[in-house]
Amino acid sequence: MSEIPGAGSQDGRRPDDFGPLALPFPDLPRMELEKLLGDVAARAQEVLATQGRLRALLRAHAMVAGELSLQVVLQHIVTAASELVASRYAALGVIGEHGLLDEFVHTGMDAELIERIGELPRGRGILGLLTRRPTPLRLTDLNAHPDAAGFPPDHPPMDSFLGVPIRIRDRIFGNLYLTGSANGEFSAEDEQLAVALAATAGVAIDNARRFDESEQRRRWLAASTQITQRLFAGDDEHPLDLVLRHAQDGASADFATLALLTESGRWEVTAAIGAPAEHVLGTVVDLDGSLTGQVVRSGAPSLTEDYAATGSAEFPVPVGSVVVVPLSAGERVLGVLSVGRLAGRRGFTESDMGHLAGFASHAGVAIELQRVRVEKQALSIVDEHDRIGSSLNEHVSGKLLAVATGLQGLASASTRPAVRDRLRSYIAVLDDTIGRIQATVYDFDPRSHETENLRERLLTVIDTAGSVLGFDVETSFVGSLAVVPPAIIDAAVVIVEDTLSEITGQADATAVEVRISILSELLTLDVVDNGMTAAPSRAATSASGGCRSGAGTLGRSTGADGSSHRTWTVPLPRREGEDQPLALGVAETPGNGDFRP
After folding, report:
1. Mutual orientation of helices 417-442 and 350-391 as an angle, nearest 10°?
2. Rounded to whole angstroms, what are the CA distances from 362 to 14, 295, 326, 488, 585?
3. Is the separation of the CB atoms in 407 and 592 below 8 Å?
4. Would you say 335 and 295 are in contact if contact means Cβ atoms under 8 Å apart?
5. Which phi and psi (to 5°) does residue 176 adopt?
6. If you ran DSSP here, which 8-state letter would residue 532 be given?
7. Per-residue pLDDT tens for 398-441?
8. Do the beta carbons of residue 180 and residue 160 sit within 8 Å?
9. CB distance 522 to 559 below 8 Å
10. pTM score > 0.90 for this model?
11. 3-state secondary structure of 568
12. C-alpha to C-alpha distance for 301 and 247, rounded to whole angstroms
């Protein structure tokens, strides 16, 4: 086939002569389409990423707003912020009244690393810059900033930094700190997300604080109600211990102390709760150079964020915030109540001080009312004691004494031994009845609750001995045991214990009686048994070992019926202005004091 002229190119060449590059110019519409598709895909990826971060922001908002506990809310804010901007470390610093960080909540470091670092940041360097100028701060390398203060030993290295303030209405609550971006540095979008989260955090913190304050009011009201109820119910716990325990719980404090004016005219720390406070128990308050002295003189509550700077008593551990309030009843200051938190914990607020002052005032009034009530009860008991004593003396005891005296005359006149013995047994019963009436009357004495109870201590020793002997030990009390001082009580208990131990060792007694009488300023203790008389025991050789030397006399004698008597007598100190008890017992005749099993 012959070629047709002009069928190829203008220069006579055919299209095949160009090889694979047959097209001499690019396909422009196709390239523009590919570029447009690439831009659309990139924009779609950005939209997806933005949607993901918005969803993360919504999750963070839900996490932060879903709690009412302030501490939980703060921890949620830190965790949500770290996840939102992909930072390795995150922290929230709460600004105190003096511009330093009062509390530091953080994430990203384990407990061992935190312990090695030591004290948490207080708000200096870059952290302080954000406190002084509360605007968002984004740095590529915080170490290069002129305000950088460096890190303590063992602190992990940090470079990129993002900080935003957290506002509650018109006040700066604290700052949110983020370091160690996963992308190398924080972007403007990271800053916008952090600012948005900080706004939500401010609302959540405000709600949590309001809830916390309402819970505080409820706790303080419950504490005031409980202490009043327990005081007027006659709880066994000391009123001051109740005040300290409720004050510590209500204030969420690590310790609490109470200073009172002593009989020597000095203010001393007389009660304390919490391990750190035990160190200052019993110390004298410096009225001129301490926070407690300031409250004693002014009668007004006081609050400090830095206890060490006040010059008050030192504690074995660092103490941070302390509140001191007067414990008063009306215008009279009964004591000074202090509560404190260890260094590193959030400090007390003015609201905390107000709650504690109100509680202390309420507790002071309750204690004073309780004191007045106890005094009125004591006076009522004294009046009742006088009435009953007078009635028993005039009517009951007088008649019994007359009958016993008559029987005594009949016994003396009787010539028949059997009748005489029977009459004397009746006289003994009447004599014992008169003694029991006296003991019952004296049990109304309110002083018996203020001193050690001789009756209870002796009965405990006697019951123990009775279980060893195999039979009950008879006991009798005559006179008021409330007039016996503690030193003589101790001595009497030792003598009874040793004497009963000696009788137990002899193993031949089948009846034992312990008689205690307090008549005419003299205490007489007589232990009688029907066993064989033994050599003097430790009780005899140390008769006055439990009290002052020469305060008592211990002797031995044998009754007409062969019974053994161990008798201890000791004079009692006379109380000024006090009438002595009237002896109602029947005068003994020969043989009347003999042991009657």
Report:
1. 150
2. 114, 17, 11, 41, 51
3. no
4. no
5. -105, 125
6. -
7. 677 777 777 777 777 777 888 878 887 877 777 777 766 666 65
8. yes
9. no
10. no
11. strand
12. 14
